[in-house]
Amino acid sequence: MKLSYVVVVSAVLGCAVGAGISWAKFGDSPPLFPSPTTASTAASSRSPQVLVDERNYDFGRVERKSKVRHTFKFTNIGGGELTLKAGGTTCSMCTVSQLSKTRLAHGETADVTIEYDSSYSRPQFRQSATILTNDAEQPRVELNIFGSITTKYQVVPDQMVFSKISVNETKTSEIKIYAFLNDNLQVVKHELTGPETAPFFEVHTAPIPKEQLAENPDVKSGCLVTVTVKPGLPLGPVRQTIRLELNTPGEEPLEVPIHAIVDSDISIVGGNGWNADYSRLNIGAVRSAEGATRKLLILVRGPERHSLKVQPVKVNPAWLKVTIGETSELNKDVNQIPLTIEIPSGTAAVNHLGSDQGKYAEILFETTHPQVKHMRMYLQFIVEQ
Amino acid sequence: MKNNLLDRISTAGLWLAACLLFAFGCNSPTTPAGSTASAASLARQGQSPAGDRKVADDQVAGAEIAPANRASAAATSKNENASKPAFDPILENGKFFEGWPKPKLALVISGRQEGYLEPCGCAGLENQKGGFSRRHAFFKELQAKGWPLAAVDVGGLVRRFGRQAEVQFGASAEALKTMGYSAVGFGSDDLRLSAGEIVAAVAGAQPNDSIFVSANVNLFDSIPKVRLVEAGGIKLGISAVLGKSFQQQVNNAEVEIRPAGESLKKVLPDLSACDVRILLAHASSEEATALAKQFPEFDLVVSAGGGDIPHYEPRKIEGTKSRLIEVGHKGMYVIVAGFYDDPKRPIRFQRVALDSRFEDTLEMKQLMASYQEQLQQLGWEGLGLRRVPAPQAKKGDTWAGQFSGAASCKACHQSAWDVWTNSKHAHATETLTKVDPPRQFDPECISCHATGWNPSEFFPYTSGFDSLEKTPLLTGNGCENCHGPGAAHVAAEKASDEAKRVPLRELLHLTWEQAKTDTCVKCHDLDNSPEFSKNVEKYWSEIEH
Questions:
Q1: Does residue A133 lie in a domain region?
Q2: Model pTM?
Q3: Which domain holds residue A58?
Q4: If contacts are CB pairs under 8 Å, which of residues 137-196 in chain B contact chain A?
Q5: Do B254 and A269 touch (CB under 8 A)?
């Protein structure tokens, strides 16, 4: 009996206290037992629901080697507890996410801070961080950050490449240095770091006129660096670096790599199956009834390019048909001579695959070039009936 | 009577409980139902209610959020107590194609491979993205689902210059052909290579057979200006251009490059009969957008610009029907455009991270093996790698800038030797010989896995590692890679040359502060050791001496 009184009194008190608190705090709160029309809302509100204030943030211009942060707000607008967990980022070295809390009751908000380290970035960056939630409709929330890196200087292109130059050729290339803070950029000193090939390079620097910088309003001034390669570099790849000291005291000089491939005046360009390393054309299997034709180009650079003559002097097997076409200008530096090689239809079965069963076929060319008097080319094929 | 009382107790208890629940439940602030719905709806649409740097809706990355993979979430939760949870690519990068019905055509869009034929693997393959093998596996998965497939690439297969880049370009072109690409453009770094090598890699039996395409790049008339392809019953018309800013980076007399706009004008009539027109613009996003506005005939414009990670949802180009698609860099992602006969939603997009959920394919493994074999056959000389003196070298000084090998340090630095010899650094070269295919002939690998190479430019110093047979003392990532060439120091100590001893000791002295900011990161960089910067002290504890 006593128990029943306690329970009844507790119930009455509980009701009174609960109702009192509710009334005092919220006035016209929703009814305790919802009407059938609001039942579904209440059912869904038992689940956590995440609301994110924004998903993309543009940092704008960011200084290199700096760390920038932005905080996104995650709010639980559902009924159940929302849990948050930092998932991966698209760059684990440069993008980090941090959560102010991982469990959110209804109405609570958490700060999700994304920190970006611009040390590793290219001129433009974009990264994402994933936040995992227990919201059934948004289990993965992807936050995106982007921006561009402010640099003091930009070198365009960032390296100087002479794709292919002839051993007898003089060739020039340029790079531009754009300054974003300095109104009057000047190269006060330049130096080539590779002493072996330095005598073959000539460097000239000059300011870029202001009117030529108008395209990019962020550029304050610029400098043009012209590098001329003189004849006589050794054949093969050449690596050099130009160190440019600018009129900004206390700063490290800019270093721009220079790459070049020095080749002979004459080279052959083939299509599918041409291997320049081995001067070999792989024609593959040829049906005797059909024969095969391959077209290549002989490219000629340097002072001999207009007058150079080429002719085949030794063809093995002799039935191979080799035709040299007319010289024409590919561009101001290079002339081209078409070269056609034909395996005539009806040729008897033969193996020239380069194995024990048959050596490569071979063509020896004679040229009028004073240094490149002969060129040899190998052909790899098999003729089948 | 007893039952009545019990009923009363239970009813009163329920009321008490309900009242208490009500009282405490109301302590949390409530949101009006109406505002909840609208806020939730905003959230579902991926819109931001506020933000001073808010980005246009069509750039919103979370426009289509894939539901979580519950199984994988559970797997990670199970591992939460482990020191390092197992990497779960689905948890990291989400599921793909959630809610997609079978498309009429799935068009895979890629680009900017930049020489990353495969992820490095140094820091664990599971948390790295990209590589041809995974891409091929992804293609095969789509094909296995019965989805009609086509693929295009905006170019930029390599990013360096020299013989290895040419070999990489050839291997990459072969990979794209094997995967069945319909069209591939050129990047500026591609066109810096020897034109002969480019042509050898891209040419088909006839000019129109090449999958490489460009409206404004001419390589001895060996490549077509447009590609017309039919896939999934859709006629695709594809052209490509190299943009103005990228053209400035090419200085190759054998390659003819014309202005992009002028060239596109000429090829547009060839695309008139196509259902979908695609422009592969190896250009900045700004220039690609301008081209899209100048040539609104294109439905999709693929750009080589933008950030490292592609947008989740391609951006609509204002005033046109076109979408601008960026591909990110290093081939870590592809974008898939799904075409449907649904007038309300004729196209869907999915960004796909090429992560460790995709297995290697046999074809690509063979191709990578053949690439490594080619490097081995060419050797350092064939790859055009000339040995250069180390920065510490001095004319007339026999020992300056010369490497002597870690073993020569042992006599005086026994405790440091003990640490090193039991570290991964000591076995760095051996590691390369044990992977399949072996990578010790690859300059991009050996430069950090042996002693005496430039780690970021991938060339050997004069007395640096040559081969396991010729320079066995220079295997491993030895002491001298961090401290500098030590032969002069060893010679001075042995000769008790007091004048040289002190300055040479100082020259090789390296503090941990210097090392972690300038030295370690030359190898432990973003590509090869993505976890390093976050765990510098942990890494140091493994080699502390």
A1: yes
A2: 0.78
A3: 50-150
A4: 161-163, 188, 192-196
A5: yes
